[in-house]
Every structure is written in structure tokens, then in C-alpha cells.
Design goal:
Pfam families: TraX. By secondary structure, the chain is mainly alpha-helical. Helix content is 67%, strand content 0%. The protein has 11 helices and no strands.
Length: 262
């Protein structure tokens, strides 16, 4: 009887959600890297809930982190190093059939900055300090305004290179992998105490993509593990994702380049 009791399913931890995301992401990236060799399109379906899972985990992580500034800085360094590493590898290998455009760190950074802005607005309202409220609004709007500036620079032949390099170092909403879908992060943060509302937001986004005929509607399946999340951290893997994410993409890219050219 005791063994049956202890073996009962107790829900998913944050660790479990991350592992699910990593496995699904790996399958998705196999499709991306091996399309030139005929990788089937259905492999891409596995990746559709991944961004949503990582967005949700970032909301949970940011809500409980001891230092939100350090959390933001880790994501910023991840974004920059991922961009530079992909640039160097792609230029050395010269495998043009696959483009290394992946950088989930940028998506998470933009979303996290907006969560940070929400916190500043909340602090300002509590302390009745208009300066903090304005700072929070500015932080939230920064990735939107930077998008507009970068797009205007890209449209001018004289400033195109400055814009290209600016994208590498400046968090901008419209230059993220998932574009406006990143807004799910601050929205889920606002609804962090109402999981049903978080899942409703995901469902609304999925319905939008379904109406557009995009397979991204499959993000709705992220709702299942999110509803089964037990609120516990689980095993620690604080820095694992920061290393696994770029390394698995670069390795798959190199393997694909080797197989395609031999």
C-alpha cells in the first residue's frame, strides 16, 4: 500500500517542464537542420508547444528568482553569445542551405524586461512614486521602440550595417523568433496567480494561429503540462539550458553541413 501511495503522480515540477521543452525542441531542430536532406515536415510539429512552455517557465522563474537584475543579465549574455557564436560558425562553415537564426534568449529577454517593467510600475504604485511608474512604462516600451528604430535604420542603405549589428545587442520585440507571441510572457506574468487565465491566454493565441492556417496553433498542447504543474522547482539545472541550447543547435548544424557536403 505504501509503495502504491509513493508512486502516485504528483504533477510536474519546473525541472520536468524544462526537460519536456528541451526534448521537443531537439526534435524540432532536427527538422530545421536536416530539411536539405528531406527531413519530414511533421517533425516540426513537436516544436510548436516549446516556446509557450519556456515562456511559462520564465514567468515562474522570474517570479521566484532572488535577483531579477542578474536574471536579466544572464539572458542578455546568452543572447549576445548565441548571436556571435552562430555568426562565427556560419561564416567559417559556409553552409548556406541552413541559416542559424535561432535565439530563444532574445525572446525570453524581451519578455523578462517587460515583467521587470511591470514590477517597477507595481512598486511605484505601492510607494506612490511617479518616477518608478514612468521607469516601468519606459522599460516595457523599450523593446517596442527599439524595434521601430532598428526597422527605420534597416530601410536606409547608409545605416543598414549599424542596424544589423544593433539587432545583435539590442532587445527588440519584432526581431525575436516568435515576434508578438512573446507578449504572452508579460500577460502570463500579470495572470501569474490565476493559472486558468494563463491557459486561456495561450488558447486565444493558439486560436489566432489556427485561423491563420499556421501549425503554431499546436502550442495549445503546452496547456496540458502547465495545468499539471505542481508549483515545485524539482531538481536544479540552473545553467544547463544556457549551455545546452546553443551547443545542440551548433552541433546539429555542423553534422548537417558535413552530411550535405560529403
Amino acid at each position: 500500500m505504501n509503495s502504491l501511495t509513493t508512486s502516485k503522480f504528483k504533477g510536474f515540477t519546473t525541472f520536468d517542464l524544462k526537460i519536456m521543452g528541451i526534448v521537443l525542441m531537439f526534435i524540432d531542430h532536427i527538422h530545421q537542420m536536416f530539411v536539405p536532406m528531406g527531413a519530414p515536415n511533421w517533425l516540426d510539429w513537436f516544436g510548436r508547444p516549446v516556446a509557450t512552455l519556456f515562456f511559462y517557465v520564465s514567468v515562474v522563474g522570474f517570479s521566484h528568482t532572488r535577483s531579477k537584475e542578474k536574471y536579466i543579465m544572464r539572458l542578455y549574455l546568452g543572447m549576445v553569445l548565441m548571436t556571435l557564436g552562430s555568426f562565427v560558425i556560419q561564416n567559417i562553415v559556409g553552409y548556406e542551405e541552413v541559416q542559424l537564426i535561432n535565439n530563444i534568449f532574445r525572446d525570453l529577454l524581451v519578455g523578462t524586461l517587460m515583467m521587470y517593467g511591470i514590477d517597477k510600475i507595481s512598486e511605484g504604485r505601492s510607494s506612490k512614486k511617479i518616477g518608478k511608474i514612468l521607469l516601468g512604462v519606459a522599460i516595457i516600451l523599450f523593446p517596442v521602440i527599439s524595434s521601430g528604430i532598428l526597422f527605420s535604420l534597416l530601410s536606409n542603405p547608409n545605416t543598414i550595417m549599424a542596424a544589423v549589428w544593433g539587432v545583435n545587442f539590442i532587445p527588440a520585440l519584432l526581431f525575436t523568433e516568435n515576434s508578438f507571441m512573446v507578449l504572452l510572457i508579460p500577460l502570463m506574468y500579470l495572470a501569474r496567480n490565476q493559472r486558468w487565465l494563463q491557459c486561456l491566454l495561450i488558447a486565444i493565441a493558439a486560436l489566432f494561429f489556427f485561423s491563420q492556417g499556421s501549425t503554431q496553433w499546436m502550442m495549445i498542447f503546452a496547456v496540458i503540462p502547465i495545468l499539471l504543474f505542481n508549483g515545485e522547482k524539482g531538481r536544479g539545472m540552473k545553467n544547463f539550458f544556457y549551455f545546452f541550447y546553443p551547443l545542440h543547435i551548433w552541433i546539429l548544424y555542423l553534422v548537417s553541413a558535413y552530411l550535405f557536403t560529403h
